[in-house]
Amino acid sequence: MDFSHLSRRKFLQGTGTTAAGVAITGTLGAGGIAIAEDASWAFEPKALDETTIRGLIAMARQLYPHDFLDDGPYVQVVAGLDASAAEDADLQAQLTDGVRALGVVVSGDASTPVAFHEQSGGLQLRALKREEAANNAFFEAVRGATLGGLYGNPEVAAALGFEGSAVEHGGYLDRGFDDIDWLPQSS
Amino acid sequence: MARTYDLSDDSVVVIIGSGAGGGTLGHELSEKGIDVVCLEAGPRLDLGDIVNDWGEMGAKLSWNDKRIGSGVLNPGYPLWVCKTVGGTTVHWAGASLRFQEHEWKARTTYGDIAGATLLDWPIDAAEMDPYYSRAEDKMGTTGTHGIPRLPGNNNYKVMEYGAKKLGYQTVHTGNMSINPETRDGRPGCLQLGFCMAGCAIGAKWSILYSEVPKAEATGHFELRPDSMVVRIVHDDSGKATGVEYLDADGNLQMQKARIVAVAGNSVETPRLLLNSASSMFPDGMANSSGQVGRNYMRHLTATVYAVMPGPVHFDRGTQMAGIVMDEVRHDDSRGFAGGYLMETLPGFGVAAIAGNVGGMSIDTPGTWGRDYTREVIENYRNMAGMWLVGEDMPQADNRVTLHDTEKDQYGLPVPVVHFDEHPNDLAMRNHAYRMGSAVYEAAGGSKSYELPPFPGTHNLGTCRMSGNADEGVCGPSGATHDIPNLFISDGSQFTTGAAENPTLTIVALAIRQAELMAEAMRTNSI
């Protein structure tokens, strides 16, 4: 796939999930997390705590990873969840409890608490599969919010090839509705 | 000038619903000088309300009132129909295909199929031919009346190439009620790609802006939007005398009528008859046959999306941009009765594809994770897509009933929609999946995804037409067998569904019904 057109307005390059541009109030926890200074998608949390927010950002990216995207669009999804949680105490509890449940590394009978956003990518996947198999509402709530929020984001959709509203551009009659060039001419 | 009528005016024809059936009937009657009051449950939009945004238009147009489903294929999911002036002609794709001759005689042609309640229609292709022609002229259907076909977009070209490589012969850009160039006050298509969100420029025929203004200009037509009919009332002789409806302010009104025509789509039409039960008609109006609500059909449908070797940008241009007709014949050597069509259909945006392929397709690499984003979502721009639409079998127990206790926002019992598939449907869908995927494979596609039906858009048969009063609700004119001045005017009257997208046939039947109704009024037989 050619996503090279994105390089012109490069998203903030994060390292995994640890450089999200979340402006968390208060003191950061352990783990050497650097807060990005770029505040272009920073948000002030309204309802959720830092661990939950970082966990949800990591989850959103693990659910629908795209190497060409930095954390920005995922952070926007979580900002939306946070805003919803501010209006909905049940959702706030569901998200907080859900991320807490993901924050456990299980091996046989042993289980060790490790914040979800600090887990390795492989362990994160294992935790997500565990939660999916448990068939709880938390997993589907975050998955649904990520599907709608990430792919409903016009910039993300455009990067994937959905060009959005056409009427203000006069449609595609003169803009490539029939521009296919790789197909042999049919007889 | 649009005029208004008194509630007490019992000379008017009251039409319930302003979609393909009701809107056409209303315009046709008004042109004959017959006074019409058309009650529409939804609001009246104009072109300025139509934008290129799937989410916004889905919310603006859809009929989202509470429904309960049982059986398969998400029958209770809000059917993908519209609660707005113009009904489904606002969001329809525009495909305008005539039934094939044999499809008017499904019982005779297909024979006795176990579990299916097939009948022959009491009318045939020869009877319908002139009405089809008038409908095509009214709607500006491409490939008829000297109107050229639309140009094919990328998604069509992929399908055409694969289909011809497979040996299919009848492949073209369809018979579409979308103007290729200015006609009848509507502009030519600009290939916007949002047909099913409503055409923002009005190039596509719709009751909303094609028929309603003309009807109003006759001076014989009043449209009352935001008017939800709750009951049809009758006199001691059993004749319909008017309808009760809730107006825009929620006040109950009673409009008297000489004739009542019901055109609320195939859930609301039987629901209204059932909700109009009285001591004289304890099982609902026009239901002596017990057929009101039964034989619900929704067409066999399926979708195939395929990942092609290069960009397709299938959102660009007319959504139903072309058709393969070779499989629409009846040929039971394929293992099923009836036939199906292949029609291009894109994916309604990335969010929809990302949800639908994972959530619906049989052969998806999961619903999330790296395999899913790489194999499915990141191939969006290279996807081609087609919709498969064919004849499904009527079955007595596929039906609309009323819930015992649940009520909607109007205080009316919620409709319960039950749907199970017939073995013929399953065999046809299997064939359609195989051949649809084969088309894309022949064009170089690497991987296809097979999706079961989206929520029903082609809802048919729940007040079906029959020559025998024991077997159906209405006769060949659409007048109900039980109540001569109560008509069925939408797809509910379909005896069988045929394979073709139903709007053209609904419009043609409405043109014909207007003639028959006018004649009956003239001779005072109603």
Cα(first) to Cα(last) distance of chain A is 29 Å
Reading the helices and strands of chain A in chain order gives HHHEEHHH
Instruction: Name the structural class of chain A.
Output: mainly alpha
Which stretches of chain B are poorly predicted, pLDDT < 50 over at least 5 residues? none
Order of strands in the sheet with most strands of chain A:
1-2
- Taken from the alpha-carbon principal axes, the silhouette of chain B is globular
SSE string of chain B, helix = H, strand = E? EHEHEHHHEHEEEEEHEEEHHEEEHEEH
Structural class of chain B: alpha/beta
Q: Count the strands of chain B?
A: 17
> How is the quaternary structure best described?
heterodimer
Computed CA radius of gyration of chain A, to the nearest angstrom: 19 Å
CATH level-1 class of the domain at 149-175 and 299-397 and 420-455 in chain B: Alpha Beta
User: What average pLDDT do the residues of chain A reach?
Assistant: 81
Q: Helix tally of chain B?
A: 11
What is the level-2 CATH architecture name of the domain at 149-175 and 299-397 and 420-455 in chain B? 2-Layer Sandwich
Largest sheet, strands/sense/barrel of chain A: 2 strands, antiparallel
Tell me, rounded to a whole number, the average pLDDT of chain B.
Answer: 97
Net shape of chain A: elongated
Can you tell me the residue ranges of chain A where pLDDT is under 50 for at least 5 consecutive residues? Answer: 1-40
Please state roughly what percent of the residues of chain B sit in beta strands, choosing from under 5%, 5-15%, 15-25%, 25-35%, 35-45% or over 45%.
Answer: 15-25%
Q: What descriptive keywords fit this protein?
A:
heterodimer; A: mainly alpha; two-stranded antiparallel ribbon; 6 helices; 42% helix; B: 11 helices; 17 strands; 25% helix
